[in-house]
Amino acid sequence: MRDAAPQTIYLKDYTPFGFTVEEVHLTFDLAPSATRVTSRIKFAPNPDATDKTFFLHGEELTLRWAKIDGETVEPTITAEGLTCNVPNIPFVWESEVQIDPAGNTALEGLYRSSGMYCTQCEAEGFRKITYYPDRPDVMSTFTVRINGPEPVLLSNGNPVASGKGWAEWHDPWPKPAYLFALVAGELIAHPGKFTTMNGRKVELNLYVRPGDEHKCAFGMQALKDSMVWDEKVYGREYDLDIFNIVAVDDFNMGAMENKGLNVFNSSAVLASPETSTDQNFERIEAIIAHEYFHNWTGNRITCRDWFQLCLKEGLTVYRDSQFTSDMRSAPVKRISDVIDLRGRQFTEDQGPLAHPVRPESFQEINNFYTATVYEKGAEVIGMLRTLVGADAYSKAVDLYFDRHDGQACTIEDWIQVFEDSTGRDLGQFKRWYSQAGTPHLKVTESYEGDTYTLTFAQHTPPSATTPDPKPQVIPVAMGLLAADGSEAMGTQVLEITKDTQSFSFPGQPARPVPSILRGFSAPVVLDHSADHAFLLAHDTDPFNRWESARALAKGSLMATIRQGKAPDSAYLEGLTKVVADDSLDPAYRALMIGLPAQSELAASLHAEGDVPDPDAIHLAVDAMREAQAEALQDMLHPLYDAHQVTQDYVPDAAQSGKRALGNAMLALITRRDGGAVAQAQYDTATNMTQQLAALGFLIGAEQGDAALGAFEAQWKDDRLVMDKWFGLQVMKAKPDDAADTATALTRHHDFNWKNPNRFRATLGALAMHHAGFHAKDGSGYALLADWLIKLDPVNPQTTARMCSAFQTWRRYDAIRQTLIKAQLERIASTPGLSRDTAEMIGRIRE
Ligand code: ARG
Ligand code: ZN
Predict the structure, then answer these.
(1) pLDDT of 740-789, one tens digit each?
(2) Which of 304, 311, 380, 827 has the smallest set of CB atoms within 10 Å of its CB?
(3) Rounded to whole angstroms, how far apart are CA atoms 667 and 555?
(4) Rounded CA gap, 373 and 521, in Å?
(5) Closest ligand 1 atom to the C-alpha of 316?
(6) Distance 316 CA to ligand 2 centre (A)
(7) Mind listing the GO biological process terms from this record (predicted)?
(8) CA torsion angle for 55, 61, 62, 66 (degrees, to 10)?
């Protein structure tokens, strides 16, 4: 439990630590409830610092003794750490603390998971391991000795020596404490080898629990692919003799880039065709790449303070998206990323949790591992690359690595390398880091003589952290199409810097059709009454072609919700042509059939001054799905048949695209045939993609319960597969049944609520079921609040993260607002609420 009156920390208050750390030696004597950690740390006064207070962070530690230069000292201890009088010359600090890994359910610091020891130190978990200046700008080399009976004892860096019951590791690369890791347990190594571009031989291992050995091959390959890619594309070579990945069942996030010892949520690394879907494979490949890429963007160059989090996360997300685009299909990746950005980041920007990519204050930094910092942070890098061009981007990034290797940096450092290497003034561009909110870009057109003119007006809605947004630099990739669909002008990038700005294109013999914001070149809301039907048929930019289908579908859905209009026939006709077009990638055609999320429709209704009715939205989407089934009816079975994969399963883009289109057809077929084809697919499926898709379609049909029972019987011993079983039932529940379904699942003997994956699978799925969560009787709100209150003392981080389900509450009607408000009050008034959850609820209630 933390302080009652939490402090707000401000970017503007940054000061360096009064001491530098020369080296760190740690000894762990492992015992589940009483691990001893002995530290020996060489400090020296920091000449660059004015504040010379010797404060070491430390939480939930029992100090047994402390010494300075061998003399026992008696530090002053508080709940946050200790202070002590120290000499103003270099000195050696030693201490021994006792900690309780088995009692650590928060999964931060050193904890136990499925019988092993593991750590999670980012952002501020190291202070639960020993007393230390736990801040990213304090970097040091670490030498770690682990004593314990476990057969596998791992830490960062290179192995130095080991014997029965002990192992020693040394990490030669100075690092902040948040990159420290330790793992110990009965683990099996899936080994691999890699030779770097300069001939360094690297030993690779993926460590898993016995029984998971068959789920390692894909992750190992993804790691090798990532290592090759970072050499080829960014010139970055690996820098240790060994690279280890460990799969852990209980983990708050996806994974963690600890130096040389990445720790992964098992769901983000373990994969096999029988247990993982195509989507799982793609996500795993991306996360392995992401964590590996952090070795340079995060570890070799880290952050000065946590306000700079986007420096490593935005850049690394951008890098992993480039990797996925290269490994798979660039347009499909771009479309998927934009769907995700709109679903999560735009939502954040539209509500009380809006914050800049680089926040200026926080209470609990763990609450800022957000879509804004990560995904919008990556969009900002993408815009920078678009503005300066690919070659200049590469040069600037090379300069960044040259200039800042080994340092803890800021966004200013990052921008400076671009200014220095390109000569551009990026002062205005920097607003992308300091202003919250999604810019709206209104487009008007005119055509006079043979000159075609586009006028852009930008406006960013004000938010709590950015009450007065200024114009931003918006790169708009666009092209012009002629009436016959040919390109009248290929893609150009317009740079919008002012509130209102016009661009003219002379020499147009006929009025062209513009295709604006190609590739989604900036994270903005485009307000343009474009000829979407024409663009859906003809646009040469695959993103905008998809976007046109989206816009038509959305317009149609909004008209159904507001005026009860029937689905738009122009949309259905255009869609039919694209879906039938065998020259297009099946994955892309599958994306075309997708509809905007119900929460996105609610957001748009709210933005346009209406009060969204979740039930009406649900019905409109259902009617649209029915209309799709009817419009596509002649091709459903032929396309389903044509996209069955007969070769051995491979999770690559080609095969998964076929399955995606086949299953998109099956979804619509099931609306017609009552589940016969889905049942056949379920019965014959030899991989999880096909099995799970069929199961999802069967839920709600007559065969649903039997299929769920069969699935459970088959997979009851596989946690990751059972997470799918828990989640899918909630996702596929009828709106009125969603809360009851979730409630019943929380009573299932296998509902281990302390496991974040299982908790999220069940209650996270409820929060994402728009009409179910917002059921009029408030049952969804009450159930989620019950569980958040229960989880908070056990795991504040996961609780706080899931509070964001309530962030959209002001969109809804007065009755729903009252119901949600009551739950927010109830959570807020829970005695001993964590700092994490208190901050989130406080911001949401504002
Ligand atoms: N740096 C990790 C990643 O992006 C995320 C760790 C976040 N952990 C946390 N407790 N907030 O890969
Ligand atoms: Zn990351």
Answers:
(1) 999 999 999 999 999 999 999 999 999 999 999 999 999 999 999 999 99
(2) 304
(3) 23
(4) 18
(5) 4
(6) 6
(7) proteolysis
(8) -30
Ligand lying closest to the C-alpha of residue 123: 1
Backbone phi and psi for residue 352, each to the nearest 5 degrees, phi listed first: -70, -10
Distance from the alpha carbon of residue 116 to the mean position of ligand 1, in angstroms: 20
Residue nearest to atom 1 of ligand 1 (CA): 256
CA of 276 to the centre of ligand 2 (A): 23
- On whether the CB atoms of residues 794 and 105 are closer than 8 A, the answer is yes
Contacts (Cβ under 8 Å, ≥6 apart) of 236: 230, 293, 295, 296, 401
Nearest CA to ligand 1 atom 2: 256
Q: Is the dihedral of CA 499, 353, 307, 6 positive or negative?
A: positive
**Catalytic residue list contains 412:** no
Ligand 1 site: residues with CB under 6 angstroms? 122-123, 252-253, 255-257, 290-291, 313, 366, 369, 797
H runs (alpha helix) in 643-759: 653-673, 676-684, 688-698, 704-715, 719-731, 738-746, 756-759
Token readout for 199 is 């001939």
Q: Report the pLDDT value the prediction gives residue 6, as an integer from 0 to 100.
A: 80
288 contacts 281 by C-beta, under 8 angstroms: no
Residue 200's CB is within 10 A of a number of other CB atoms, namely 13
Site to substitute for ligand 1 among 134, 369, 804, most atoms within 8 A of C-beta: 369
Distance 369 CA to ligand 1 centre (A): 7
pLDDT digit string, tens, across residues 354-389 = 999 999 999 999 999 999 999 999 999 999 999 999
Enter the ipTM. Answer: 0.98
Over residues 583-597, the mean pLDDT reads 98
Catalytic member of 59, 257, 291, 364: 291
**Ligand number, closest to the Cα atom of 179:** 1
Distance CA 292, CA 565 (A): 50
Residue 45 bridge partners (DSSP)? 19
DSSP-derived letter for residue 626 is H
| Cis peptide, bond prior to residue 123, ω within 30 of zero | yes
- Alpha carbons 37 and 28: distance in angstroms, whole number: 5
Q: Report the pLDDT value the prediction gives residue 4, as an integer from 0 to 100.
A: 53
**Which runs of consecutive H residues, i.e. helices, occur in 328-449?**
330-340, 346-350, 371, 377-388, 390-404, 411-422, 431-434
Judge whether 97 and 63 are in contact, CB under 8 Å. Answer: yes
Which atom in ligand 1 lies closest to the alpha carbon of residue 369? 11
Mutate to test the pocket of ligand 1, among 180, 253, 365 (most ligand atoms within 8 A of CB): 253
